[in-house]
Amino acid sequence: MQDFNVKRFCLLSILTFIAALSSGGDSFAGRVGAAYGPDEVKNTLKELSKQFPASEAVIITDSLAVTLHQDGRIDRRVHRFVALFTDDAVHRYGDPRVLFNASKQRLSVKRARVYMREGKIVDTRKNGINQTTPVALASAADYTPWQETVVTHVGIEKPCIAELWYAITDKEPFMPACSGVEFFSEDDPVLERVVQVTVPPRAKLVHAELNGAPAPTVTNKGRTYTWTMKRIEASRSVRGSVDPIEYLPAVIYSNEENWSAPMERIARWFDVATRNRDFAVDPLGGVEKKSDDAACAVEIQRKAAGVVKGVEAPFAQFELEPRDAERVYDTSYGDSFDRAVLLGALLKEEGYQPYPVLVSRGRMDVEGLPPALELFDRILIAVPIDGVPLLLDPTKPYERPPELSLPGASFLCSAAESSIKVNGPLKKKNIDSLELDISFDGSDLVCRGKAELEGVFSPYWIIRGTDGELERYLEKRAHSLLGGNKSIIEGAELVSCNIEKLNRDDVALGFELVVKDLLEGKDRLYIDLPEPIDQSAGGLDDIDITGSEAKAPFGVIPQRCVTSVRISKPAGWRFAALPWSDSQTGDVGAIKTLSKRESDELVSVKREIVLKAGFVSVSAYRELRSLIVADKIGTIVLEKE
Predict the structure, then answer these.
(1) pLDDT at residue 29 tops 70
(2) How confident is the prediction for the chain on average, in pLDDT?
(3) Contacts (Cβ under 8 Å, ≥6 apart) of 600
(4) Could you tell me what percent of the chain has a pLDDT over 90?
(5) What residues contact 1, with CB distance under 8 A and at least 6 apart?
(6) Which residues pair with 148 in a beta bridge?
(7) Phi/psi of residue 409, each to 5°?
(8) Its pTM surpasses 0.85
(9) φ, ψ at 564 (rounded to 5°)
(10) DSSP 459-482
(11) Domains within the chain, CATH numbers bracketed
């Protein structure tokens, strides 16, 4: 592979490159060619728009070259050419932002250029390259060494070809390892994507290819590894889709042979950052040691989550040493690693022995993969309770065990502990059942209900206290208990409630709601078929079903949700309409609705939805969408006689 640093580009080569792709030809990257002119640019754009008529942009070539030096410094060089056809494409690529650590690294923009259709070439000048603090870090001073350089492509007009070529070099050894996860797919079609990693003499590079990524070619006496992939379809994830690591072509690499070194490093950092706990008296105020150590740990977690504002760190935070716990508390902000440190310090102060646990970003077994910390997207704190680890998420107040919403994820912890194997909701029963008995007392609606919640739906940690937690829990969910009719929601009053069963994975509740004067002045009443209490905990509300087609697979927690409603009509009223009795079954799951007129005075409606597939492929999306849509439909209508 030729050196990207001396890449010289001829637009005429694009046409040759496009033709060569269909016959397996080599990349034009680095190729020297004849002079270009307006015809070559125009013809290139025309050819690309013909081959990709529905695309807003086409990435012609995108190359990343990573070099690890003998002393530990790392260079990263990026060179990209993109054809832009729409205003949205110009918006997305016209002002690229390059993140780097200004105190530890140098950024050099080699070239930022636009090739116009009529042949004009516009280079970005120095005043078009501006360094700024990322928005996410604007109020987090300790993180501001991380800067973004905005490269403004001056005079850009569609259609055109935009070129960006830059290098980030370490001023001194900065990162503890040279590792990464690089994807070949983008939001737009890619003609060619090249990833190249070079290591020093006698150094090793471990690597793995996922989801159809190509094997590398090895040159330079075994020091340089180059992965090249061509003709890659666009892939855009949406809300609820699984992490790209589960389905997009990617290469993982590292100069560390296994997970021992990075996990030992994280354990050491965590230990150092949690040693100073003199500050802990203030945030722990009011915490009383309880006989149930788990309950005390959860209370500490809730306090820790409430005293620090979360910062969405744009950098690879698990690869860098966290701040001291006292500093995190004093500044009142932190990324997830810093917040884990704060929680760990508070737990240690109360006598616990917490340790950090990294959670993989996808459903995969990371232990056999190269040790790249980009494979993880969150950190939990494990607290041994009677020999069993209680997992705490440092970023949000504790409501449910966080592992329940992470089906199939890998959990890696510090070297002093063995890996935590959590089956999660794939192996647990996740059942959400609601029974409602609705009647009328004059013009008042009276609703008596029972809810049974198991697995991921269990509200054990939300309602287990005695200070009104159950009442607040049910009052917040009154809208779902009586369907979507606002006239009911606004007047619903919780009359009574009780806990019938209270186990961590299995809770049963009883309650009574009253809506005063609901029938007053009405000739018709609509009652939407309610969904079970906290059905959103199963993750269905997180799935974007607005599109008729899917570009990415979805992750679903296997679950069974049941709603049973019995309604006795008020005197002088009749049932005008009931939800249709219907059913559908497929590979993803099933849904069944059964409406029945028990008598002239009483009707019953039962709906059950079962989702059995944890991974929903793109081809199965329509079935999943159909199930979710069907679960949202159903209204009981009463009319005055």
Answers:
(1) no
(2) 87
(3) none
(4) 66
(5) 194, 196, 217, 219, 224, 226, 228
(6) 99, 132
(7) -75, 160
(8) yes
(9) -125, 125
(10) -HHHH-SSSSHHHHHHHHTHHHHT
(11) 4-254 (2.60.40.3140), 260-425 (3.10.620.30), 431-640 (2.60.120.1130)
Q: Could you give the CA distance from residue 395 to residue 433 in angstroms, rounded to a whole number?
A: 29
One-letter amino acid identity for 82? V
Model confidence pLDDT, tens digit, residues 353-377? 999 999 999 888 888 899 999 999 9
CB atoms within 10 A of CB 485: 17
Contact predicate 259/572, CB 8 Å: no
pLDDT of residue 492: 80
Encoded amino acid at 524, one letter: R
Give which of 40, 60, 289 is closest to 163, Cα–Cα: 60
What single letter denotes the amino acid at residue 55?
S
Residue 147 tokens read as: 């800067």
Q: How many helices (H) and strands (E) does the chain have?
A: 12, 33
Alpha carbon of 82 to those of 94, 237, 619: distances in Å? 10, 21, 30
Give pLDDT tens digits for 529-579: 888 988 888 888 888 888 888 888 998 889 999 999 999 999 999 999 999
Secondary structure of residue 496 in the 3-state scheme: strand
Which are the contacts of 50, defined by CB distance < 8 A and separation ≥ 6? none
User: What are residue 485's phi and psi, to 5 degrees?
Assistant: -80, 115
> Cα Rg for the chain, rounded, in angstroms?
29
In sequence order, which residues have a C-beta less than 8 Å from that of residue 285 and are 6 or more positions away?
Answer: none
Residues 560 and 609 sit within 8 Å (Cβ to Cβ): yes
DSSP string over 359-376: EESSSS-GGGS---GGGE
- What 3-state class would DSSP assign to 420? strand
Residue 623, Cβ neighbours under 10 Å: how many? 18
**Do 63 and 4 contact (CB within 8 A), yes or no?**
yes
Query: How much is the pLDDT for 44?
Result: 84
Tokens representing residue 578 in the block: 């009931």
Sign of CA dihedral 498, 501, 507, 508: negative
Indicate the pLDDT class of residue 334, thresholds 50, 70 and 90: very high
Q: How far is CA 450 from CA 308, 484, 495, 562, in A?
A: 37, 19, 14, 12
| Kind and range of the H or E run holding 224 | strand 224-232
199 neighbors 216 (Cβ within 8 angstroms): no
Q: In this structure, are residues 333 and 354 in contact, taking their beta carbons and an 8 Å threshold?
A: no
Query: CA-to-CA distance for 637 and 595, rounded, in angstroms?
Result: 13
Q: Which of 32-36, 427-431, 586-590 has the weakest average pLDDT?
A: 32-36
Q: Which helix (H) or strand (E) holds 630?
A: helix 621-631
Determine the Cα–Cα distance for residues 77 and 39; give it in Å rounded to an integer. Answer: 30
Which two three-digit tokens encode residue 362? 């996808």
Spatial distance between the Cα atoms of 251 and 198, rounded to a whole number of angstroms: 14
Q: What SS3 string covers 573-611?
A: EEEEECCCCEEEECCCEEEEEEEEECCCCEEEEEEEEEE
Average pLDDT over residues 162-184: 96
* Tokens (6 digits) for 108: 């050099």
